[in-house]
């Protein structure tokens, strides 16, 4: 059975209980496999949970009401020409004008269906929602949805990863989050790669079966990943890295340096670096 995220953000928890901390998030329009239905573990609760598995092989539990499960609608959605929202936050309106009523709000990384341009309203595009409704949003808010790497050119790919990571600067830290409304360290890195058409492991480690492989620290280039105990960052060049951190004074996505001579040097991380990871081999992507 398949399902589609039908809320702006659908919390994914490690256990079927709202008292559990956030483990991951589904963004609007993301598709998942449903492994089963289970009751809420809190006494007196009546809303069931669905045990789900994401496209990047992450498992957890979502409230059933957050997901669209109608087989015909899910099938139509998965067969449709979908795009991805690149704006931090985009409204889908019932009319192609700013005075329109908001039908749904979608964060960066959420998916919509492209219906077509609106010739009489330049800059607007008609889009479809998972439940079959249609609305309008700004054309510049959308980009192609890549399910394979968007380019074979390594330097272009690396530059895009860094550009995407920088677009989250200032986003608050949210444990388990992966949107501009709140994001954690592995949410930041995995979303940047996902938006480029590559699924990496959702947590802060190198895992067999995913495309990131360990490389010597001295071979790192922009877009490569730095792994610390329970933490991950993206190297952006010039001895600097970008990451989402809950450390007091940072409180979200910031840039720090590995170089003690730099004002943005963070003294607690360089000494505990465990691994450096890359999508690319010595002569380009494997």
Task: Please give a structural write-up.
The chain is mainly beta and 286 residues long. It has helices spanning 71-79, 154-166, 185-195; strands at residues 2-5, 9-13, 22-27, 31-38, 49-53, 59-63, 67-68, 82-85, 89-93, 102-107, 111-117, 124-128, 134-138, 142-144, 178-179, 182-183, 213-215, 225-228, 231-237, 240-245, 252-257, 275-278, 280-281, 284-285. Helices cover 12% and strands 38% of the residues. The chain has a six-stranded antiparallel sheet with strand order 17-22-18-19-20-21. It has a five-stranded antiparallel sheet with strand order 6-5-4-1-7. A hairpin with a 5-residue loop joins strand 5 (49-53) and strand 6 (59-63). Helix 2 crosses helix 3. The protein starts with a strand and ends with a strand. The model has no long low-confidence stretch (mean pLDDT 95).
Radius of gyration: 20 Å
Give the count of helical stretches.
Answer: 3
Total strand segments: 24
The unreliable regions are none
Q: Give the overall pLDDT as a whole number.
A: 95
The shape, in one word, is: globular
């Amino acid at each position: 059975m398949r399902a589609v995220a039908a809320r702006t953000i659908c919390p994914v928890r490690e256990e079927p209980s709202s008292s559990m901390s956030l483990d991951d998030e589904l963004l609007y329009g993301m598709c998942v496999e449903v492994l089963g239905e289970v009751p809420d573990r809190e006494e007196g609760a009546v809303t069931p949970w669905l045990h789900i598995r994401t496209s990047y092989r992450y498992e957890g539990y979502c409230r059933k009401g957050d997901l669209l499960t109608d087989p015909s609608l899910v099938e139509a959605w998965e067969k449709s020409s979908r795009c991805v929202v690149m704006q931090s936050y985009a409204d889908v309106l019932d009319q192609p004008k700013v005075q329109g009523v908001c039908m749904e709000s979608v964060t960066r990384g959420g998916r919509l269906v492209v219906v077509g341009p609106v010739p009489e309203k330049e800059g607007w595009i008609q889009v479809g929602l998972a439940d079959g409704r249609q609305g309008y949003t700004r054309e510049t808010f959308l980009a192609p949805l890549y399910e394979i790497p968007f380019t074979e050119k390594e330097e272009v790919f690396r530059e895009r990863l860094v550009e995407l990571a920088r677009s989250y600067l200032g986003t608050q830290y949210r444990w388990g989050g992966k949107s501009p409304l709140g994001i954690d360290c592995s949410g930041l890195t995995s979303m940047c790669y996902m938006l480029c058409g590559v699924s990496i492991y959702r947590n802060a480690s190198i895992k067999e079966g995913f495309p990131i492989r360990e490389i010597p620290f001295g071979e790192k280039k922009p877009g490569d990943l730095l792994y610390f105990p329970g933490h991950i960052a993206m190297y952006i060049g010039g001895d600097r890295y970008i990451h989402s951190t809950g450390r007091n004074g940072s409180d979200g996505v910031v840039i720090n340096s590995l170089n003690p001579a730099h004002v943005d040097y963070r003294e607690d991380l360089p000494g505990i670096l465990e691994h450096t990871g890359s999508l690319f081999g010595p002569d380009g992507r494997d």
